[in-house]
Amino acid sequence: MAALDADTLRKALVDDGPYAALDVVATTGSTNADLMADPDAQDRTVLIAEEQTEGRGRRSREWVSPPESGLYLSVLLRPTVPAAKLGALSLVAGVALVRTARHVGLMASLKWPNDLLAGASMAKCAGILAEVTGDAVVVGIGVNVGRLPREVPAGAGGLPATSFHEEGANVDRAEVALALLRSFAEVERSWRGAGGDLATSGLLAEYRANCATLGQRVRVELPGDEARQGLAVEVDAEGRLVVDVDGTARAISAGDVVHLRALA
Ligand SMILES: O=C(O)CCCC[C@@H]1SC[C@@H]2NC(=O)N[C@@H]21
Hints:
- The mean pLDDT is 93.
- The chain has two domains: 6-208, BirA Bifunctional Protein, domain 2, CATH 3.30.930; 214-263, SH3 type barrels, CATH 2.30.30.100.
- It is α+β, with helices and mostly antiparallel strands.
- Strand 10 (241-245) and strand 11 (248-252) form a beta hairpin.
- Helix content is 25%, strand content 29%.
- It is built from seven helices and twelve strands.
- Helix 3 (89-103) packs across helix 4 (173-193) and helix 3 packs across helix 6 (203-209).
- The protein binds biotin.
- Residues 30-32, 52, 55-58, 61, 63, 72-74, 115, 127-129, 140-142 line the site of biotin (BTN).
- InterPro entries: aa-tRNA-synth_II/BPL/LPL, Biotin_CoA_COase_ligase, BPL_C, BPL_LPL_catalytic.
- This is biotin--[biotin carboxyl-carrier protein] ligase.
- Keywords: Biotin, Ligase.
């Protein structure tokens, strides 16, 4: 796959677009770590890496990030919304991922909180890691675009991995980067304009409509080895998953979800 051209991306997304700055680096540890360590980064700064040597995923997992097959990018934002609302940004980014997968012609949905399932296999094609530092939040997104490298491990709960290419979408990473960053800028603007409120931004409705977890029997693996099993009934206005556990509604803000039907 061709290397990403920083000038072309900058022209479309910075000079004529919504971002303040954009850089493409050949290799780095983690684009999230780099932006988090940059106190001078402006609101709406994008960093893309061709390769990451210490790509990180949710709950301290590794995000395998070899050159050529994937898109690895982070966006630093300094939104003036209440700190408690920042967690919802990863769901907002999930909506942008669904729009991007559809843009390249794939069926797509989200496994709560923010795994993109795409194509006929509905396996995991992309993930999101949002991290907060001071008044900034860094939203990192990894997308499997090309041929899947052999060493990609299954995700949480044994969720298999796939890629846009494996699902039949032969797009290059530049097209995916443009579509994703444009979609993300749109949804982030709506979310910020609504003061970080998912419901009034309209994004909660779009998230719910695209959430494959709702209506499923699930096991939620909570931080600290606890687990809950029940029926996923709602994503609430804070972005939490509401699970009916033996008739009691439990709102879960963080955890790994296993769709039990998918295991059957
Ligand atoms: O599904 C997950 O666990 C989240 C994966 C997030 C990976 C991206 S790749 C770009 C950015 N830099 C990182 O180190 N991680 C995120």
